[in-house]
Amino acid sequence: MTLIHLAIFLPVIAAVAIAIIYRYVKDVHLGWFVLPIPAVIAAYLFSLIPSVADNQVFHHTLNLMPRIGLNFDVYIDGLGLLFAILISGIGSLVVLYSIGYLSKDERLGNFYVYLLIFMTAMLGVVLSDNVLMLYFFWELTSISSFLLIAFWFTKDKSVYGAQKSMLITFFGGFMMLGGFIILSIITGSFSIREMIANVDLITASPLAPLAVVLILLGAFTKSAQFPFYIWLPDAMEAPTPVSAYLHSATMVKAGLYLVARFTPVFAFSELWVWLILVTGLVTLFWGSFNAVKKDDLKAVLAFSTVSQLGMIMSLLGVGALAVASGANEQLFTVAVVAAVFHIINHATFKGALFMVAGILDHETGTRSIRKLGGLMTLMPITFTMTIITSLSMAGLPPFNGFLSKELFLEAMFEISQANFSALAEWSVLFPILAIAGSIFTFVYSIKLIHGVFFGKRTHDTPKEPHEAPALLLASPIILSSLVIIFGLFPNILSGSIIDPAAMSILASDTALNTKISHWHGFNNPALWATVAVVVIGAALYLFRNSWMFIYDYHKEQFTLNYLYDQGLIYSELGSAKATDGIMTGFLREYMVYIFGFFVVIGVITTFYAGLPIVFDNFAEVGLQDMALVIIMLVSLAIIMMTRSRMVSIIMLGAIGFSMALFFAFFRAPDLALTQLAIETVTTTLFLVCFYHLPKRSKHEESMQFKFINFIVSVGVGVIVILFGLAAYSNRLFDSISQYHIDNVYELAAGGNMVNVILVDFRGYDTLMETLVFGIAGIGIYALMKAKVSRKDDDNEEHA
Amino acid sequence: MELVTIILSGILIASATYLILSKSVLRIIIGLSILSHGVHLMILTMGQLKRGNVPVLDDSVSSYSDPLPQALILTAIVISFALTAYSLVLLLRNYKELGTDNTEDMKGVPHGD
């Protein structure tokens, strides 16, 4: 247990205290007590920056289950530290914002406890070196995210969104666990650093592609990549601080973290690079394309998040090329730097944008862009922040989004120089998709600014709009200032955070010395691409009314949401149908399954094992034996065919008495005696039962012949005969009975061997058999005496 | 002889199966009875038939038939009798409560209505 372990668990430990405080302190907003926790963690993590920038890594072990390799190993390098700082830093701002956003009437105790659990989970994900612990924290983020989305659980949409996100992210998490286990089988370790060290083993293993796909499924579902992005827009039912924190800045980046973390392991794999590149770009384009048509502010931001995550994902794909072709390949290390930089940038501007959306919602009562308008003069501070952050999102100078977007476009142009599988031939597509996505990004960014703050002031808003209180404004102001600061002075980040993070993605020790500059010269294609994006985007926005109709072609039936909903409905219907089909409620059918299964297994066993039957070693057949056999067969036939119950009872008696005779012939006098006595009593019982039958069921029917029943019972009989013969033909060793015969008098002082076995050698059987008898007697007594009738019970309940 | 008894017990068990698959509870109980007869016969057969004398100690006899299967069957007879008696009473009780001995009619009413 070191300080860093304590830092990871601090939120959860504090959550207990918060729950108690919530119980007793009612005057002060609970958020004020929560605020110091992420702030302290952030401060502690900031203090680690200089050492990490100096290529120092921290590694601490906490043994949990060392025998199976489950240890809580914390490993801090540039990448982990970057994410941890984002989590705790933005966490502090979100808590501050939530103090203004959530009133004291809400169930604040629940909110902050969930949020603190999430914080621990997220810190655990990014700082764990052990994949099992990573998986543990990963699922904990899913669970706490589920709880936070359904915070207003009385609303159907919240519950729907929570369920959807849970199903999708749990699916991915589970697949990811499979990938981790494959990796640990290959390398023999659960430690990520060990896996990176043993990358040769992974390269050589035929299981590697499976691990790639499984781990990427985890990353794609969590980071809302195509086609798993569908949960993110529905997660917007969460309170806005949650959307800002989980669904823009931190949790959705867990997938990116995973991809970045495993890049040194998997970069050799063509599958890995292709999947990340293509999925990222498709997501980028599709997310931004869909964002334009949305009217709800948070929906626009959700699709925008999807699109930006896709952009980072594709950059990580290019970054993998750098690892695959040697870490010093300058061309592609740019992509890694861009990815890391954009992770920071996106966290700042998207966090701020969500907070702004929350402010608008809070102060006007609606999030619909159509109902808002002309708020520029009414909400000047909010307006300024929106301008800054939206333009940064659109990729315009001088904000930080511009810098990372330039790097992104540059990386996409340079992909044509990749010497990697068929990448060079398809490389034309990448910049085109990237630019198209950027154009739509530009369009919805402008739409956000223009639709909300410009134009005529509408009076549809439920509340009279006015500027938000300082408490709400503080956090987005800090984030927007960061947008400008990082935009103007990007190099304060590059040396301290971006380079160490990029180096851990590339798994290299050589310092990168990145210099991010605004100006790359006229001959840089990325510059012209940006110009094109702005020009085309502006034109598209100006003439939006003439092309927006294309969205009408995107009918509900063709969306992935529809597919998901229908899939859910049909899987429920299908399983209901399956159970209804099998579980009919009829005893007969269940018995058919059971006997049928017995027959099938018997046939399969016979087929594969063979049944060596030897027809010898049989005793001679006497005439009286055959007579008995015939009596039994005739009685059986009568039972099967008769209409009368009485006759079948008597025939059953005949079979029983024949059995007694058999026992007599086969030298078992005790058995014969018992069988005689018991058969008499049984027959009497049957007759008593018969006598008590209600009159109306007197019209007795003969058994209807059922073909399936016949087949099954013949099968059972044949299998029994075959197995009996096989068992008889293959006696492996002599009976142990000789011991009983030899010692019956010496040890037990008795002459009747059967009785001595029953009460002496194997007396326990007899004891328990007596118990069975006693229980049956008590049961019969209870059945006869019990007066309770279910029908009466029900009537009483209804009355 | 063992060949005959094995086949006989196979036929007994097959008929029992057929009866158990019928609708009437009385027939099912008859089927269970026959099933136990078939099984007892099979156990006895596995201990070999007609080898040696009745297993009661006698100085003039050197070979006895196997006493162990007989002890096992004795236990099994008693237990199957207890089962038969209990299920018969259960059948009786069922008649009184439900007025039917047809398993297909014993569907009951789903809870909650």
Automatic annotation (TrEMBL), chain A:
Residues 630-695 form the MrpA C-terminal/MbhD domain. GO terms for biological process: proton transmembrane transport; sodium ion transport. Residues 69-112 form the NADH-Ubiquinone oxidoreductase (complex I) chain 5 N-terminal domain. One of its GO terms (cellular component) is plasma membrane. It comes from the Bacteria. Residues 128-423 form the NADH:quinone oxidoreductase/Mrp antiporter transmembrane domain. It is found in: Cell membrane; Membrane. Signal peptide: none annotated. One of its GO terms (molecular function) is antiporter activity. Its main location: membrane. The chain crosses the membrane at residues 6-25, 32-52, 72-99, 111-128, 134-154, 166-187, 207-232, 244-260, 272-292, 299-325, 331-360, 372-396, 428-449, 470-489, 526-543, 590-615, 621-639, 646-666, 672-693, 705-728, 766-784. Residues 710-785 form the MrpA C-terminal/MbhE domain. The keyword Ion transport applies. Keywords: Antiport, Cell membrane, Hydrogen ion transport, Ion transport, Membrane, Sodium, Sodium transport, Transmembrane, Transmembrane helix, Transport. It is a multi-pass membrane protein. The keyword Membrane applies. NCBIfam families: 2a6301s01, PRK12645.1. Belongs to the CPA3 antiporters (TC 2.A.63) subunit A family. May form a heterooligomeric complex that consists of seven subunits: mnhA1, mnhB1, mnhC1, mnhD1, mnhE1, mnhF1 and mnhG1. This is Na(+)/H(+) antiporter subunit A1. It comes from Jeotgalicoccus saudimassiliensis.
From TrEMBL, chain B:
One of its GO terms (cellular component) is plasma membrane. InterPro entries: CPA3_antiporter_subunitC, NUOK/Mnh_C1-like. Keywords: Cell membrane, Membrane, Transmembrane, Transmembrane helix. Gene3D superfamilies: 1.10.287.3510. It is found in: Cell membrane. Its main location: membrane. The chain crosses the membrane at residues 6-21, 28-49, 69-92. It is a multi-pass membrane protein. It comes from the Bacteria. NCBIfam families: PRK08600.1 (NF006372), PRK09094.1 (NF006573). PANTHER family: ANTIPORTER SUBUNIT MNHC2-RELATED. Belongs to the CPA3 antiporters (TC 2.A.63) subunit C family. This is Na(+)/H(+) antiporter subunit C1. It comes from Jeotgalicoccus saudimassiliensis. The lineage of its organism: Bacteria, Bacillati, Bacillota, Bacilli, Bacillales.
